[in-house]
Amino acid sequence: MVGEATRTSEEEEEEEEEEETLLKLISPLSSKILQNPFAHPLRDDEEAFSSTVNFKISRNITNGKDGNPSNGLLLRTFTSHAGISTSGQNINVKGGIAGFSALYIVYKGKAAFSVTPVLPTFTKLDSGLHVVDRGGCMMLKFTPAIGERKYDWEKRQLFALSPTEVGSLISLGPNDTCELFHDPSMLSSNAGQVRKSLTVKPHSTGGGYMISLTVVNNILKTKDYISVPFTTAEFAVVKAACSYALPHIMGWDRVTEKVEKVNSGRRTPDIKFDRGQLMDSEWDK
């Protein structure tokens, strides 16, 4: 007869610490939230949101066995500007499927990083057609470390990737660099008061990437910089996860799901979306 395995008190304590750490990443608002990580109310961002994407691709083109660049450095730069009003559509609002939460978390010595999809919400028109009311995003969260395996959840910084910005990330090659800029007041006279910049670049020695977030608040006279190194495997997971989630944050999965229902002639229960369960908006502190 095989005896039943038992856990030691040390193993139980370690498991409880891991659960507490995960809950802090999901909802770092207060100790009360740890008892119920989904209890906090919805806090929509009512500010106008604007973003600038400065996407740079740099490649060394080499011919010959000596590895010397024969065609020099090819630099392609693509810059786009987009202004999005939260009154109609917002890529940085909370969103999720009721009762579910999933994060990909990377812990490093100086900071922790997590990414999770924030699904879009839909509204029903008088015609009966459902359209996207608030767009989805991939929410990146950066949390600085204050000690060994300790992180300051109160100083976490958020950066919401729109579908186009997700495309910039997943299309990166091994020698490419990507820079993304966000300014909530870019299209107004208050432009530049608060500015975020996300930089993704390969390690100079190869074998991984560095993702850095800079947040400049000219109102509070503060500047925060958080940098997280990624191994090749960790960055591959981020890219694959973003690639898989892309049609979902665009709401296309709901469209194809409807088509499949019609074609198969069977009914499946609709998924209920609750934008208040998963993440804070990027600008709501």
From TrEMBL:
<dbReference type="InterPro" id="IPR013742">
    <property type="entry name" value="Whirly"/>
</dbReference>
<dbReference type="InterPro" id="IPR009044">
    <property type="entry name" value="ssDNA-bd_transcriptional_reg"/>
</dbReference>
<dbReference type="Pfam" id="PF08536">
    <property type="entry name" value="Whirly"/>
</dbReference>
<feature type="region of interest" description="Disordered">
    <location>
        <begin position="1"/>
        <end position="20"/>
    </location>
</feature>
<protein>
    <submittedName>
        <fullName>Uncharacterized protein</fullName>
    </submittedName>
</protein>
<comment type="similarity">
    <text>Belongs to the Whirly family.</text>
</comment>
<dbReference type="GO" id="GO:0003697">
    <property type="term" value="F:single-stranded DNA binding"/>
</dbReference>
<feature type="compositionally biased region" description="Acidic residues">
    <location>
        <begin position="10"/>
        <end position="20"/>
    </location>
</feature>
<dbReference type="GO" id="GO:0006952">
    <property type="term" value="P:defense response"/>
</dbReference>
<dbReference type="GO" id="GO:0006355">
    <property type="term" value="P:regulation of DNA-templated transcription"/>
</dbReference>
<keyword id="KW-0809">Transit peptide</keyword>
